[in-house]
Amino acid sequence: MRLLSALLAAALLAGCAAVPKLPPERSRLRDFALEARFALRVTPPDRAPRSSGGLLSWEHDGRGDRLLLSSPLGIGLAEIDMAPGLARLRTADGRRIESADPESLTEEVTGQRLPVGRLSDWLLGRTTAGGTLERDAAGRPARLNEAGWQIDYAYADAAPDAPPSALTLNRAGEIELKLRIESWRELP
Is residue 187 part of a domain? Predict the structure, then answer.
């Protein structure tokens, strides 16, 4: 369950310390790093919900993504590297799993094909032509719906250029991931 929880948290990414401002034009932001806490709840059909949580360190740049998942006490559980044509998971016990893309990797590990490739865009409130985005009074992303997922955004600051301090990702009540972003920075 820990590996499943860690991978789902990476795949999907309340209350927060001060978070640096994002550039006013989110559409131009490409590369970032963040530190977050996550809480994950999975409710399989006809079974009791299972919950877990921990820490997430995420770097996203033009070459790909690197995610480090740790227990609430900071003990490393798994590292996930994603680049075009390759997704690799390494667990603390030395296990390695590779796939051609992050969605195939999540399907192999969890049995579900999860939209890992969309997470960085969802974090910034970017959607595809098939999705919808609602904005708050300050013009920031408030709710995004795409491919059966609903992403709700919360902000610790009222400024129009404030980055989200918390996200809740939900798929039909069967998977809920809450992220509390503790630090956020734009990468050069």
Answer: no
